[in-house]
From TrEMBL:
InterPro entries: CRISPR-assoc_prot_TM1795 (IPR007522), RAMP_III_fam (IPR005537). Residues 9-190 form the CRISPR type III-associated protein domain. It comes from the Bacteria. The lineage of its organism: Bacteria, Bacillati, Actinomycetota, Actinomycetes, Micromonosporales. NCBIfam families: cas_TM1795_cmr1 (TIGR01894). This is CRISPR type III-associated protein domain-containing protein. Keywords: Antiviral defense. It comes from Micromonospora gifhornensis. Part of the Csm effector complex that includes Cas10, Csm2, Csm3, Csm4 and Csm5.
Length: 437
């Protein structure tokens, strides 16, 4: 079968780390002063790889299939194998990148000033460093800048049209809800499809694929399963593929009759487990969206006035004041992702054994922030959250210094995510407060 070509473009800075080390602080200072950097700091590297693209598409396929297979993890793996392959089965969908874009170090325009400061807040310390004063940030990792030349992603579909349809559904989700590389949950690594050349499996059309990063101005139009119309058209393909996947198992599980508790992995499953909303505010471009989101997110996380702070805004998190440096055991802030690293070597993290023993673990944030365009060609902030089980029951959350258990759970995820989405969806909603002396 002939290859189908998708012309694609990066929409927000994409950090897809490779073998090159990050820029050191000394090198960052040298770059800022206009000095020459060593060769290893100037060499580009491949910014997008098929392996990372497939990995991200697998994530979104599981979110799509979860509403049909539930807690039957063996069946979920069989569905994934039928679409993307496994050690025992070749994938019926081949992918290749004839001209992958290159990632380079640099000082992009969006990194400067107050805007750059708040974009850097979302990027985190692993990707950027403060430039000092009001000069924004220094980007310390190689990245693909948005708006550059398009690149081509080619797909070749086999005889299984249902598997092909679901592979495209996963790619559509990647473009609408996710991205590639680091900090995708905070708006980075966005992709969009700009044109299609070649045949597509039903029900997909070029217009549907290109719609992934354009949301209706009137709202997201999700159905009772939390799916937009484009994904809902793949429901029959999913049902048929799940039926075939059951036959792949030695002992097929009983028919799925719905989740009996919170999902144990991200899944589109209706308003109880997936919530989403658009900001009422509109913006001129993606950088304005992320700067707005960064400033709002700082005030969302840090709710306590701190007049003595040596930075602005003069606010601190409740958890730093009353839990890390107090006697409280509540750590709701952890619902936005763990570990959380504070100064003085104090860290809050999950561990895999009761009582604080075991190895430190990670828990990615259930709350995602994405810049998208609406049908009026305005940029909006799309926020959504998977309200599944936050941590398995055998995992504890602990503070490192002094070592003691803390409390954070699924209820905190729902409360914080709902508060964020509903507040920014309202016409006058904001988390930024006037500072009190």
């Amino acid at each position: 079968m002939a290859w189908t070509t998708l012309n694609m473009q990066v929409t927000t800075p994409l950090f897809n780390g490779g073998h090159q080390p990050p820029m050191s602080m000394a090198e960052a200072a040298r770059q800022e002063a206009g000095g020459q950097l060593p060769a290893h700091a100037t060499e580009p590297e491949t910014g997008i790889r098929i392996s990372s693209l497939r990995g991200a598409m697998r994530y979104w396929l599981r979110a799509i299939a979860g509403a049909e297979v539930g807690e039957q993890i063996g069946l979920l793996a069989a569905v994934e194998s039928r679409v993307f392959g496994s050690t025992m089965r070749a994938s019926p969908v081949a992918l290749r990148l004839p001209n992958p874009p290159e990632a380079r170090l640099g000082r992009p325009a969006w990194s400067g000033g107050d805007k750059g400061r708040w974009i850097g807040y979302l990027a985190g310390q692993g990707l950027s460093k403060p430039a000092g004063g009001n000069r924004g940030i220094l980007v310390t990792r190689r990245f693909i800048d948005p708006g550059g030349p398009p690149f081509r992603l080619q797909l070749r579909f086999g005889a299984d049209t249902d598997a092909a349809a679901l592979a495209l559904a996963a790619l559509w989700c990647l473009c609408r809800y996710g991205g590639l590389g680091a900090r995708t949950r905070r708006g980075f690594g966005g992709l969009r499809i700009t044109a299609v050349e070649g045949e597509l499996p039903a029900p997909w059309t070029p217009e549907m694929l290109c719609s992934a990063t354009v949301v209706p101005s009137a709202g997201l139009q999700l159905d009772e399963h939390g799916r937009p119309p484009e994904l809902a058209t793949c429901a029959e393909s999913l049902e048929r593929l799940v039926a075939l996947a059951r036959q792949d198992l030695t002992t097929p599980p009983a028919a799925f009759d719905g989740w009996h508790g919170l999902p144990t992995y991200p899944v589109f499953g209706g308003p109880e487990v997936f919530i989403a909303g658009l900001s009422s505010r509109t913006f001129a471009d993606w950088s304005a969206v992320l700067a707005y989101a960064g400033e709002q997110f700082r005030s969302f996380r840090a709710t306590e006035s701190a007049p003595g702070a040596k930075y602005t805004p003069k606010i601190k998190t409740r958890e730093w004041l009353h839990t890390v440096n107090g006697t409280d055991h509540e750590f709701a802030l952890g619902a936005l992702g763990l570990p959380v690293v504070f100064k003085d070597g104090k860290t809050v993290y999950p561990v895999g054994a009761a009582g604080g023993g075991g190895s430190p673990l990670r828990r990615a944030s259930p709350l995602w922030l994405r810049p998208v365009r609406d049908s009026d060609d305005k940029w909006r902030l799309l926020s959504f959250a998977f309200l599944g089980r936050f941590l398995p029951p055998e995992v504890d959350v602990v503070l490192s210094q002094p070592m003691r258990p803390l409390v954070v759970g699924s209820a905190d995820v729902k409360r914080l995510s709902t508060d964020w989405i509903t507040t920014l969806s309202s016409s006058d909603g904001s988390f930024i407060r006037s500072e009190t002396p």
